[in-house]
Amino acid sequence: MKTKPQELFVLVKYATVGVIGTAMDVGSLYVFVDVLHISLLVATAMSFILAVINNYILNKLWTFRKSDRNYRKQFIKYFIVSVVGLVLTEICMAFFVYLIGFWYIASKLATSVIVLTWNFLANKNWTFQDAIRPIARNPKYEYNLTVVIPAFNEERRIGKTLEAIHRYFGNKSVTREIIVVDDGSDDKTAIIVNALKEKIHDLHLVRYYPNRGKGNAVRTGVEKSRGEFILFTDADNSTPIDEFEKFRKLLNQTPVIIGSRYMTGSDIIIRQPKYRVLIGRLGNFLIRVFLFAEIRDTQCGFKAFQHMAAKEIFSRMKVNRFGFDIELLSIAHLLKYSIHEVPVSWYNSSESRIRPIKDATRTFLELLYIKLNLLSGRYD
Prior knowledge:
By secondary structure, the chain is of the alpha/beta class. It is built from eleven helices and nine strands.
């Protein structure tokens, strides 16, 4: 941890870089306009970009002493901070000069302090932040497996699913815990889960309100998990828990395993309506174009992880709703975790609450959001 004198020294270096950048900005503007006779607006943009590049390199290698080679994503973030600083400059100058009536030189000095503070804090805590955040490691796992079940108003289905999971593990040499995350239900979901605790050992219920989305529920369960491996599955048991048998041996060598309904060997027992199949395939096509081409089915709600892979992936996630599957696979891909698809059986539930048009639109917007996060380095 840096001491206060060290922090002050970093700020002094940052301010020095700012002075150098300003001199370069003004000097290059003069050369572009008076020597090369470039139009003022074009010359202004060119000199600004030149100063940003200069400041970025000096701040990276001298001020914050970052030796990593993450230049492209860091520069995009640095440029965004600089543009926001430029807009902030215009707003502050207009406020001080025209609304309050300050002398323009005094206004410029006050504005410089404000913008310098913004730029310094934004670049220190965002642009040049450490790429890998420390994650607590469990010295000893309490269970072989944690099963996470996100649930929202699942009073009609959660009991049957928990009974099925209990029967499956009843004759297995696998120690397990089950975490049901009640995502703001207003029905009897919590009552049913609590009633089963006497019968099903190591069954835990996590509740919060209001509803925050499936992604948030799964992330909450992963954060509380104590198993060497972590599986999340849907409350309707649409992929039967028996399919985990295909995952067990693979998990020792593969950090991320996902169920797939579109591979050879998968078995769709009850199919979705054709319009939902069409929307799903279109969404999968867009995902393969925008993010990764090698994964056939990103949305199957049956995925398993090695403990540390799950902790590292989910700690970086931002999306709370249906797009979270896409996000977690994007982060796994970014962190270079191997991802293995396994064909599974799948039953479409007639009680599904998915709203095809609204949820497909939201997921597409989340897809764009994830792509921007990847480009700007928010997951690094």
